[in-house]
Amino acid sequence: MEKNSKLIKDVFAVQRFRNILFYELRFLDGVGLFGLYFFFGSINFTLSIIGLNISSIELAIILITTAAILFSPYILYVLIIEKKIGWIIFFFSMTIFPLVFIHIFFREALFYDALILIPLLLFYFYCYLIKFEVDKWLADFSWHQERLQQKKETEDRIKSEMIL
Questions:
Q1: CA angle centred on 113, ends 107 and 119, rounded to 5°
Q2: Residue 83: strand, helix, or coil
Q3: What per-residue string of b and e applies to 119-140 under the rule 16 or more CB within 10 Å gives b?
Q4: CB-based contact 132:152 (threshold 8 Å)
Q5: What is the percent of the chain with per-residue pLDDT over 70, rounded to a whole number?
């Protein structure tokens, strides 16, 4: 089997990565947010019983931020396995660098809480962009596998015709 450096190395990890991206982005669409509004209401009710007062918006931001923090190492893991250096650099330039910049230069600003959401929005925009790229990686891999299968069938057919 010939090796192509542009093809994905671990198809199962990339497929799992694509599935996680799909569900994470579904989590943020309108239907997911509408359903989460009622979920947050029940959580807020439970938290208010034990004495914690957190608004639905604060709870949503906490959950969305937690998902981003937990998913980031997996993103980097898959990108490192696949040796997608450009996407790794793009990840840092869209999420980590803006977060550090805002924290260093604006941590004393009155609007710091609003600014700190910008890297979170950029993170989910990055996930949206890379989802399409991962689909292309998987399509290229499938096409290459199909081409190898056709090539093998053609060679087998030629061999069987030579024997006759």
A1: 85
A2: coil
A3: bbebbbebbeebbeebeebbee
A4: no
A5: 75
Whose CA is closest to 82, among 141, 19, 22, 144? 141
Residue 85 has pLDDT above 80, yes or no: yes
User: In terms of Cα–Cα distance, which of 106, 107, 101 is closest to 119?
Assistant: 101
Tell me the DSSP string of 119-154. Answer: HHHHHHHHHHHHHHHHHHHHHHHHHHHHHHHHHHHH
Produce one character per residue of 84-102: b if its CB has 16 or more CB atoms within 10 Å, e if not: beebeebbeebbeebbeeb
Residue 30, token pair as written in the block: 């309108």
Q: What is the rounded distance in angstroms from the CA atom of residue 13 to the CA atom of residue 26?
A: 20
The tokens describing 21, both together, are 């991206």
Q: Indicate the helix (H) or strand (E) that contains 45.
A: helix 30-49
Residue that has been written with the tokens 């009622």 in this structure:
38
pTM, full prediction: 0.73
**pLDDT > 70? residue 55:** no
Say which residues have a Cβ less than 8 Å from residue 51's Cβ, sequence separation at least 6. Answer: none
Q: How far is CA 126 from the centre of its chain?
A: 8
DSSP state of 111: T
